[in-house]
């Protein structure tokens, strides 16, 4: 039993990091521009498929094609923002949130269908030669690929943290997030900041997608369930802490993995229930400001 | 007196928006509520109408304690309000806007047909005859202000709170608006006007209450208030508001 | 004169639609019509909460599913169909009241996502707790005819449209629309936000539950989980927005287009492509044409 628990714990941390990374991109966009991009999972899916096809057609290792996919999703995100969300970003408050949510909702319906036409509904997985290899510590099995995924998640999260706190652009993003009117007055180009933030969020989603492709399966329909996971983590973490988002992801991952031992297939409901409970009783999340 | 506000206070976070405000308004009056920007006039309205709950204090209306009641109850008790930035029901027709007020705020059950007839009458009264079936979004600013008054009147109020009705109006429109307020008052409704435009306040009200940074600093006839040293000082930073 | 003409035309349409099974034996035509009528009911039920009351409830399928389960199992257990349908139409609002109450206290985006998550929870439970598909027993299968399904779908659709029509002309409709437009302005005009939202919710879910019952009678075999899949909600939302949210006729037009497009495109493209077309139209409506097709056609009967 103890071994099972320990293994579940380890697995939970790894998948949780994935949840966390998926949420980080979503949190960035929501925190800066108050747009809840529920098509986030679609970017994730596209990133995964991009790495899959690069790997299948050119044999380039998915970890190596990672920067390429990130750039690709960055550009795609920028394009989609420009086309669909730039007008919405001019609205205020609840109208902006609701309208952007509806537009993103439209994307959730369109993108998976287009993906199905292009790539069929077959399951895909990115399986380089070394997938499936693992090492053992104290009887717990750690796969090399999932561990690499964990590493990528931590590095990207950390990198984003540094970017936001140390670089000029990162600081302008934070300034815009806090008070876009003041930011504009200080000479920050708010529209461009929004565009780049959205694109960055999409890029991070794309990277998450590669990790999903490596550790799980890719389907055109997989976007929505990952968006939901990201939302659960986002609500649990609250706004204001990138690192906190990753931690919240790990909490959810562990909660699901461990509860699987006791309630089996119902474990998937755990995250969803946590989501509703947090929304109702502690809406600022674990790390957000009240 | 129809409205009595006692020791009213409201804080937002650490900021005292309204600090121990007392005043009364007599029935049938038009009272003015003035003060520099950010003084808390709209907050005061929100407290009276129930959109905000006071931290301390008591509000008595028509003999009843209405402190802490829900806004729709307060409306049904007889207080109506217009908003500074007009908040009409944009995707509904002018007629439907007013009917909402009649059906829900009027206090007595009525049929839809009756509501329609009465609402048309009120729209005429406020100068919107012929625009019943226009969507509120299609109306210009002046008409939307009329519409807000019409909707408020449909709730059969004993007290009407008008929040900066004159903002954005040219002199002719302002004259029309002042006439409308007088007509409303003559029909038996007590009115409190929040205004920045002194001409309107002085022209309409018999009694003026002055609020600055959340506190009442003066009360009296318009002539008395205008000469009050504290009031002049409070407005000193505001060049556009001359006191004559 | 004009009013009589409209009533006559409406009567004519209903009579024509009622005669369809007598005019064709083709099961595909009958299926299309039955589905259109089902979608009319489902989308009109969402129209009440989303179009008129302005509450974007993305968990609508939960009530469709609950109605389906109640009706299906009661009916297969021997309960007369009308009672089974009634049970479905009652079970759904019951669920709404019990579980919906806390979710309804959420505001804005949180409400939208919260309702989606709520329905997802039910979906997972349905798939996991009832993994075996419910298939009609042999006697039912051999006696299966689309015709009674068609007529049931028709009657329920007429009921749904009638309910929406009555609401649109009623005091409740005024209140719901006021809530949609501006809650604070509605409050200060005497509207009890809670009462209006709750009423809209109950009527909406009751109709959704009834639609679920219709589907329970229609489906020869279905997995319990499949009736809780969010696509049912999304279809309703698409139809309402594209057809014209907050209008009586919008969801009718939307449903017709939706099913026809779905069936026609399915011939050339993988099963879900109609969603791309509707998705694009949906985005266009949200960004540029809030009145949907009804606005496009110049009629704004609200």
Largest sheet of chain A: 2 strands, antiparallel
How many beta-strand elements of chain B?
10
CATH architecture of the largest domain in chain B: 3-Layer(aba) Sandwich
Per DSSP, what share of the residues of chain A sits in E-state strands of 2 or more residues?
A: under 5%
- The CATH superfamily label of the largest domain in chain B reads P-loop containing nucleotide triphosphate hydrolases
Q: Name the overall outline of chain B.
A: globular
The main sheet of chain B orders its strands as 6-7-8-3-9-10
Integer average pLDDT of chain A:
90
User: What distance lies between the first and last C-alpha atoms of chain B, to the nearest angstrom?
Assistant: 29 Å
Named CATH topology of chain A: ABC transporter involved in vitamin B12 uptake, BtuC
Supply the helix-strand structural class of chain B: alpha/beta
Work out the count of structural domains of chain B: 2
N- and C-termini, Cα separation of chain A: 39 Å
Name the quaternary structure: heterotrimer
The first-level CATH class of chain A is given as Mainly Alpha
Would you state the CATH class of the largest domain in chain B? Alpha Beta
């Amino acid at each position: 039993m103890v071994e099972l628990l320990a293994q579940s714990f380890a697995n939970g941390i790894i998948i949780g990091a994935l949840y966390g990374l998926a949420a980080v991109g979503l949190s960035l966009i929501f925190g800066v521009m108050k747009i809840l991009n529920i098509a986030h999972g679609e970017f994730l899916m596209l990133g995964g498929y991009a790495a899959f096809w690069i790997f299948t057609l050119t044999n380039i290792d998915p970890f190596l094609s990672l920067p390429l996919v990130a750039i690709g999703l960055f550009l795609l995100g920028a394009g989609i923002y420009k086309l669909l969300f730039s007008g919405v970003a001019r609205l205020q408050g609840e109208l902006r949130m609701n309208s952007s949510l509806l537009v993103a909702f439209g994307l959730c319906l369109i993108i998976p269908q287009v993906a199905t036409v292009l790539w069929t509904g077959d399951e895909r997985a990115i399986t380089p030669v070394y997938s499936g290899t693992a090492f053992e510590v104290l009887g717990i099995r750690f796969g090399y690929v999932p561990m690499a995924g964990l590493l990528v998640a931590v590095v990207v999260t950390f990198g984003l943290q540094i970017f936001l706190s140390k670089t000029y652009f990162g600081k302008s993003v934070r300034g815009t997030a806090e008070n876009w009117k003041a930011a504009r007055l200080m000479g920050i180009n708010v529209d461009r900041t929004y565009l780049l933030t959205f694109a960055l969020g999409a890029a991070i989603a794309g990277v998450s997608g590669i990790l999903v492709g490596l550790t799980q399966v890719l389907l055109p329909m997989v976007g929505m369930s990952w968006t939901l996971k990201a939302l659960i983590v986002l609500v649990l973490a609250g706004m204001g802490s990138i690192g906190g988002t990753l931690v919240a992801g790990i909490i959810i991952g562990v909660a699901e993995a461990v509860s699987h031992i006791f309630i089996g297939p119902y474990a998937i409901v755990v995250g969803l229930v946590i989501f509703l409970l947090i929304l109702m009783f502690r809406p600022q999340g674990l790390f957000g400001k009240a | 007196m129809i409205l009595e506000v006692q020791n009213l206070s409201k804080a937002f976070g650490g900021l005292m928006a309204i600090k121990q405000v007392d005043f009364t308004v007599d029935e049938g009056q038009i009272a003015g509520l003035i003060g520099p920007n950010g003084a808390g006039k709209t907050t005061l309205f929100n407290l009276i109408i129930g959109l905000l709950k006071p931290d301390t204090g008591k509000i008595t209306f028509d003999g009843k304690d209405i402190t802490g009641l829900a806004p729709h109850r307060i409306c049904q008790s007889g207080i109506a309000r217009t908003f500074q930035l007009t908040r009409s029901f944009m995707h509904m027709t002018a007629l439907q806007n007013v009917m909402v007020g009649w059906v829900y705020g009027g206090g007595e059950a009525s049929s839809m047909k009756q509501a329609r007839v009465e609402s048309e009458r009120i729209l005429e009264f406020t100068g919107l005859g012929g625009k019943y079936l226009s969507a509120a979004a299609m109306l210009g600013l002046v008409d939307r202000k009329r519409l807000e008054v019409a909707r408020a009147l449909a709730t059969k109020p004993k007290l009407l709170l008008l929040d900066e009705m004159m903002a954005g109006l040219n002199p002719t429109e302002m004259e029309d608006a002042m006439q409308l307020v007088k007509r409303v008052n003559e029909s038996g409704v007590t009115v409190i006007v929040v205004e920045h435009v002194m001409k309107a306040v002085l022209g309409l009200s018999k009694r003026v209450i002055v609020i600055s940074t959340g506190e009442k600093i003066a009360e009296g006839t318009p002539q008395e208030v205008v000469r009050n040293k504290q009031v002049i000082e409070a407005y000193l930073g505001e060049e556009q508001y001359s006191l004559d | 004169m004009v009013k009589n003409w409209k009533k006559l035309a409406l009567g004519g349409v209903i009579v024509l639609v009622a005669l369809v099974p007598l005019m064709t034996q083709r099961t595909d035509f009958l299926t299309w019509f039955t589905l259109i009528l089902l979608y009319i009911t489902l989308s009109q039920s969402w129209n009440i909460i989303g179009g008129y009351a302005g509450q974007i409830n993305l968990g609508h399928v939960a009530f469709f599913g609950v109605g389906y389960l109640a009706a299906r199992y009661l009916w297969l257990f021997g309960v007369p169909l009308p009672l089974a349908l009634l049970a479905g139409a009652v079970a759904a609002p019951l669920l709404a009241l019990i579980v919906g109450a806390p979710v309804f206290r959420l505001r804005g985006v949180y409400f939208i996502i919260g309702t989606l998550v709520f329905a997802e929870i039910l979906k997972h439970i349905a798939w996991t707790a009832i993994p075996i598909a419910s298939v009609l027993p042999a006697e039912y299968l051999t006696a299966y005819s689309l015709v009674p399904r068609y007529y049931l779908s028709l009657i329920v659709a007429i009921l749904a449209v009638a309910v929406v029509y009555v609401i649109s002309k009623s005091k409740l409709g005024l209140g719901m629309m006021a809530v949609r437009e501006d809650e604070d302005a509605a409050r200060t005009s005497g509207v009890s936000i809670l009462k209006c939202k709750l009423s809209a919710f109950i009527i909406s879910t009751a109709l959704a539950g009834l639609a679920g019952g219709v589907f329970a009678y229609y489906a020869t075999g279905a997995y319990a989980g499949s009736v809780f899949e969010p696509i049912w909600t999304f279809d309703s939302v698409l139809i309402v927005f594209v057809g014209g949210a907050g209008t009586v006729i919008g969801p009718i037009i939307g449903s017709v287009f939706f099913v026809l497009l779905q069936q026609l495109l399915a011939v050339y493209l993988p099963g879900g492509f109609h969603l791309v077309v509707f998705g694009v139209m949906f985005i266009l409506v949200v960004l540029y044409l809030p009145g949907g097709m009804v606005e496009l056609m110049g009629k704004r009967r609200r």
